Amino acid sequence: MEVVKLKKTLIIIIVSITLLSLLCYSGIAAEYKWKIQHGRPMGSAIDNDINWMVEEIKERSNDRIEIEVFPASQLGDYTVVQERVGLGDVEMQLVPLATTVDQRLSIHTFPYLVEKWEDVPKLYSTGSTLMNILSELMEKQNIKLISSWPSYFGGIGLVKSPPSPGDPDVPKNIKIRVPPTKSYELTAQSLGYLATPLAWTETFTSMQTGIVDGVIGSGAEGILSNYKDLVKYYLAINDHFETWYFYMNLDLWNSLSEEDRQIIQDVGLELEQARFERAEAEEKANMQLLEESGIEVITFTDDELSTFARKVRSEVWPQIERDVTPEILEQILKSIE
């Protein structure tokens, strides 16, 4: 009888310990559940990278940090979601930086700031002068900038053939979408186009209905992911270098343990470094895919690109350096030199 009681007691103890362990583990797994948004479709390069990143964070945190990925701007236009991240309504985003709150952030897409791939890491890698400046500015919006995701050099996608595409002094009489940022608007005008500021999420319909006949503020990847059924010509003008940024709510960041912050920072930097190693090759591959899709890719000689750069720097820079402040621009230029 005593043996039976002992066995029952042991069974109860074992079951209790097992249930307690499961409850504890379940509590750990559910400690953090966050959202992260990006602007590209499922299966795109950024979508694949973010899914790798969230799985790495989950694994390294022993399943305590779970992050749900929302592709294709499912939570709203990235400019609006940036504000929601600052408020803590959305925890994370990996997108371009919106300048609606602070025009100084437009320094990261300053036209013709860099012209060659070899200069890109010097400017856009974590720890650079530019990244430190952006980080300080984003903190004022209650956002922690973690790392960068270098994308591509920008170009123009058009539904109609432009006259004299290599001569910026020839008026194109083609209305194109520009992001709601003065630098893009003035650059498009300097290159001979008619600029129409539109949100990213409104662009496809606007091109489809003829409100605009093209788009600037994207590269070969952006055209391939979003507009390949509309665009007939892609102009690789290298007007700016496109970088996206991984960031999260600053209050949330500050509330985390040092260990959890290190996990997020490490994974973000690993993703950044991996991206630097393959971004240029991916850009070339995307241009090839555009051609295979029936889109005419128009490239330019070094002299033509230099002509674009000189014209934009002389006409546009004096008008937009006030937005970023001459001091910030001077710091950036010195870091490049």
* C-alpha end-to-end distance: 88 Å
Q: N-to-C SSE series?
A: HEHEHEHHEEEHEHEHEEHHEHHH
Structural class: alpha/beta
Number of domains: 1
Rounded average pLDDT? 92
The number of distinct helices, counting runs of at least 4 residues, comes to 13
What's the architecture, going by CATH?
3-Layer(aba) Sandwich
User: CATH superfamily membership, which one?
Assistant: Bacterial extracellular solute-binding protein, family 7
Radius of gyration: 24 Å
CATH class term: Alpha Beta
CATH topology name: D-Maltodextrin-Binding Protein, domain 2
Major sheet description: 5 strands, mixed
Short description:
This protein has helices at residues 2-29, 45-60, 78-87, 120-124, 129-139, 182-190, 200-208, 220-226, 250-255, 258-292, 302-315, 317-324, 326-336; strands spanning 32-37, 65-70, 92-95, 143-153, 155-158, 175-178, 194-197, 214-218, 233-235, 241-249, 296-298. The protein has 337 residues and is α/β, with parallel strands linked by helices.
Describe this structure in words.
By secondary structure, the chain is an alpha/beta fold. The protein has a single domain, classed as Bacterial extracellular solute-binding protein, family 7 (D-Maltodextrin-Binding Protein, domain 2). 50% of the residues lie in helices and 18% in strands. The protein has 13 helices and 11 strands. The chain has a 5-stranded mixed beta sheet with strand order 2-1-3-10-4. Strand 6, helix 6 (182-190) and strand 7 form a beta-alpha-beta unit. It starts with a helix and ends with a helix.
